[in-house]
Design a protein that fits this description.
Length: about 600
């Protein structure tokens, strides 16, 4: 039994999230957390909405609202989406809490005291017509490295290099096309080169990461540059140093505050749990494990920058130092990055309407149908395309005709002929072989889930389902209705229902909503797959109230076979999954085109 931190990427609160977002971080982290809890680990799954930064400021300006109002709106939308998907966060909070501000400022001060934050005079872009700071990502120009014509001031999407806006050739404002003016301004930088040694040593110990993530991270460490951690902006966490604290025009850079959210959310969870020190078990115990889930565009923040902040605050970077007042903090165990999901062969794009938002999806389809698609066909280790045709095919052929049909025909046959789970007589070799297949599944599926190979894991679970369907067809219990053969019919159905119960446990991390239903169809009472709830809470330090996602996940199924009790009453089942008419493919493609 270990303490397992599931640190899930923070969705940016400037709009609703689409299914590409949740396939990269949301569903995989929930599948992992559910499995780890079922196998007896003490999991803390935390995240929240990332609410600072220039894009929110710019969008709020455009809508004539405050950044806080904009963030409030999308925080609620995102909380509802993640709730609808059944993502079992212990705490899903936000970066505008006072608790978060104070933890961010504490880390800033700790890093500063240890000499890992340095001041520098740099060039900042302003809009000549308004005199206001022009955010990096709203400046566009030609990439000085690869020559790509539409590089942004913070990054080139063609070659992937991080940029500063003044490096762009022919820079232009993306807001109104004017040429920005560059003026001198003072900022703080994280001294990343001072972590090269410590990061390199640490990465050398991370042999079980996905190879592409490890290789990419090691390459980043080869060429570390100081990185700005403050910005000319009014919206964000104030800089906690004398002479800076009260300045309204300088704020901590959004990426710096957002990665600290993993820690601040853990501390907030502990404070709300009644034991304010409880977070330490996940952050300071030497046996604790920490898994970070994100899409591949965020690897640098989790395998290089966040570890640097943790090392620097703990006094373990190349310049040494002392741990800050919270004490030394654990580095990640693993950075679990997924690849990109595309849609009908194109990149997701809200502006080009190549998109399906989570909310719209859940209005028309079931959460488990999407969870199944993401687990079975998502971007785990390759870029993957979502097509409506493939979604409908998998839903109908695999969920409905495979798993749903197995449950439905077995339960209804047993209910009709016995009214209860029948007694098992003597088992044949075929019976034993099938029971053996599903019992071995706890080891094989579990091992794959522990290694973040969810696609292979759900494939194994569905292989058990296929074997059970074949068993039923071969044994043909519906032919054994007369008095002499009915005991054998009972045995076959008992075996089938036992295999269904166990397969349902194997599928629970992936399909928690339907797993609860299958559990109840088999006569189960109480919670099988615990669900999160949305709770309106007061800010712990006097700020405005807000909704969080939280839950009690100590209840529910364990990762083990539970023998069914003969005689448990069964009722005629209702279908677990909805078959989709193929016409939805055309309808969805038309929505995309319009
Ligand atoms: Zn480039």
């Amino acid at each position: 039994m270990s303490h397992v931190l599931a640190a899930v990427a923070w969705p940016y609160a400037n709009g609703p999230r689409h299914i590409g977002h949740v396939s990269g971080f949301g569903v995989p982290s929930d599948v992992f957390s559910r499995y780890m809890r079922m196998s007896g680990h003490d999991v803390l799954m935390v995240s929240g909405t990332d609410e600072h930064g220039t894009p929110i400021q710019v969008q709020a300006d455009a809508e004539g609202v405050t950044p806080r109002e904009l963030a409030d709106r999308y925080n609620r939308v995102i909380v509802d989406d993640l709730h609808g998907l059944g993502l079992s966060y212990d705490l899903f909070t936000r970066t505008t809490t006072r608790n978060h501000y104070s933890v961010v400022q504490e880390l800033f001060k700790g890093l500063y005291d240890n000499g890992y934050i340095i001041a520098k005079t740099t060039l900042g872009a302003i809009s000549p017509s308004t005199g206001r700071t022009l955010p990096d990502r709203y400046i566009e120009g030609t990439c000085p490295i690869c020559g790509y014509g539409s590089a942004r001031g913070d990054q080139c999407d063609n070659c992937g290099n991080q940029l500063d806006p003044e490096q762009l050739i022919n820079p232009k404002s993306r807001i109104n096309g004017e040429v920005p003016e560059f003026v001198e301004t003072e900022h703080f930088f994280l001294d990343l080169p001072a972590f090269a040694g410590a990061l390199g040593k640490w990465l050398d110990t991370r042999s079980d990461w996905r190879p592409n993530v490890l290789k990419f991270s090691k390459n980043l460490v080869e060429d570390l540059q100081p990185r700005a951690i403050t910005r000319d902006l009014e919206w964000g966490v104030p800089i906690p140093l004398e002479g800076w604290e009260d300045r309204n025009d300088k704020r901590i850079y959004v990426w710096f505050d957002a990665v600290i959210g993993y820690l601040s959310a853990s501390i907030e969870w502990a404070r709300r749990s009644g034991d304010p020190e409880a977070w330490r078990k996940w952050w300071q115990d030497s046996g604790a494990l920490g898994y970070y889930f994100m899409g591949k565009d965020n690897i640098v923040f989790h395998s290089v920058i966040w570890p640097s902040l943790l090392l620097g605050y703990s006094g373990e970077g190349d310049k040494g130092g002392r741990p800050g007042s919270l004490g030394a903090l654990n580095l990640p165990t693993e950075v679990v990055s997924s690849e990109y999901l595309t849609m009908e062969g194109r990149k997701f794009s809200s502006s080009h309407k190549v998109v399906i938002y989570v909310r719209d999806f859940l209005e028309r389809y079931d959460a488990d149908a999407l969870r199944y698609f993401i687990a079975a066909a998502g971007p785990e280790s390759n870029d993957t395309d979502f097509t409506w045709a493939e979604f409908v095919r998998r839903n109908n052929d695999e969920l409905v005709a495979g798993w749903g049909n197995l449950v439905n025909r077995s339960v209804s046959m047993a209910a009709k002929n016995f009214g209860a789970i029948p007694e098992a007589g003597e088992l044949t070799e075929d019976d034993k072989a099938l029971l053996d297949v599903v019992r071995k599944g706890f080891d094989t599926v579990g091992e794959l889930l522990g290694k973040h190979r969810q696609k292979a894991a759900i494939g194994e679970a569905m292989r058990v389902v296929a074997e059970a369907n074949k068993y039923l067809s071969d044994q043909a219990p519906w032919k054994l209705k007369d008095e002499a053969t009915k005991p054998r019919m009972g045995t076959i159905l008992h075996v089938a229902l036992q295999v269904i119960s166990d397969a349902n446990t194997l599928l629970t991390p992936f399909l928690p909503h339907s797993a609860q239903k299958v559990f109840e169809l088999l006569g189960g009472v109480g919670v099988h797959a615990p669900m999160p709830s949305v709770v309106e809470v007061e800010d712990l330090d006097g700020g405005p109230s807000y909704p969080v996602l939280t839950g009690d996940y100590t209840v529910g199924a364990k990762w083990e076979s539970v023998p069914l009790v003969a005689g448990t009453p069964l009722a005629a089942p209702t279908p677990i999954f909805r078959k989709l008419d193929v016409s939805v493919i055309e309808e969805e493609l038309e929505r995309l085109a319009s």
